[in-house]
Amino acid sequence: MAEATPQTEQPELHRAIGPKLLLFFVVGDILGTGIYALTGNVAGKIGGALWLPFLLAFVVAFLTAFSYLELVGKYPKAAGAALYTNRAFGIHFLTFMVAFAVMCSGITSASSAALAFGRTYLRQLLVEFFDVALSPESLVITGIAIVFIAGLALINFRGVSESVKTNVVLTCIELSGLVIIILIGIWAVVNGDGEPGRLTEINVPSNSSVMLAVTSATALAFFAMVGFEDSVNMAEECKSPAKIFPRAMLWGMGIAAVIYVLVAITSSLLIPSDELAKAGSSALLRVVTVGAPGFPLWIFALIGLLAVINSALINMLMASRLLYGMANEKIIPKFFGTVHPFRRTPWISIVFTTGVAVILVSTADIGKLGGTTSLLLLIVFTIVNVACLVLRREKSEREHFRAPTWAPVLGAITCAYLAMPVLSGRPWGDYVIAGWLLLAGLVLWGINRVLHGKVETHPENLGK
């Protein structure tokens, strides 16, 4: 399908992003809720070899990044997976489901951040400053998480002008918390503290195997590596995207992976895996308490709070904007594209995505929401890797990065493997949540099909 973006209709976006800002954007998009909230959950699945699933998750994501780099060079549009799917297969329903899955992943990711906000970091600040100790599962904490989601909706409703320069500041804050953990680990090693033997321990349940334990932990840890794919949405605002994207994305992912592995090693050195698992989303707070007893815990709690706020806001903005784009393209009921007359924001889409997030926060835990996010994106990444291979028959006049063929092949295989029910060891709860979300999309698509018949899809406009 030819790109319907005439030069005369509207000016191009300002190409203001250079290689350094793009690198910070990639790192900032990856760092966040995954490592701050799910370290304990991953430890519960793998044991002391906590670093291994994060490393394997990086390898799988790295393979898929090659496909994104080839495709964003050929089609430098702010649309991502939906555009690539449509160009490769030309199946409108598949294009819609990919776009809807990406939108749902934003909601589940933001919901997990909301739970981390209430159950972990805000709860710790309440203890530090007001000596108020609440159970993570209490109705008050759940209510706080719901209020947090509502607060994001209000910010979204008022309109948020995102800036990659602001992203640099927030990235530095997120990074500072993880650097604190790494420095604590270095200090422990220098002083002979910690237990290195734990780094090779893999806990295998009686009814499982080493392979299943590793893949189950990797499937969850993959949530910590997602975000790199969002950078393709900045393609139209980058200087020479075909030239700067490969280095910025691959270096950004590498930096994030090194940080994650070092944080995981520190956590395992200082605390047994069963204690990390018991701590859950508070695992990193526990690491600070044990490794640096004199360090003001409220500082790390505040850093963690800002990290999950940033992740949640970005994801809820993305979700509501993508839903609005689908309504504008008439592939879901146009009702969802309603814009508020004064705020000029897509308020119906904001209300819908907020409502879904509130339901998820009220009914699921952080582990399930993180697992569902990784499941949805693993499915999308499988399709993108295949699309990369299919689209090689479509020549481009642009000079662009070309991935080695083995990268998208292995990327498709590994992503599909980690998404499969039995092979990955993924809990069925992830599939249940993902299934209900995608079913909602199917219903919306069906209603629109009955009302308006077959509609041609222009995925390059979904993010606008």
Automatic annotation (TrEMBL):
Name by which UniProt lists this protein: Amino acid transporter
Membrane topology: Multi-pass membrane protein
Entry-linked InterPro entries: AA/rel_permease1 (IPR002293), APC_superfamily (IPR050367)
An annotated GO cellular component: plasma membrane
Keywords in alphabetical order: Cell membrane, Membrane, Transmembrane, Transmembrane helix
Pfam families listed in its UniProt record: AA_permease_2
Gene Ontology molecular function: any one: transmembrane transporter activity
Transmembrane segments: 21-38, 50-72, 93-118, 138-157, 169-190, 210-228, 249-271, 297-324, 345-364, 370-391, 403-422, 428-447
Lineage: Bacteria, Bacillati, Actinomycetota, Actinomycetes, Pseudonocardiales
Originating organism: Lentzea jiangxiensis
Annotated localization: Cell membrane
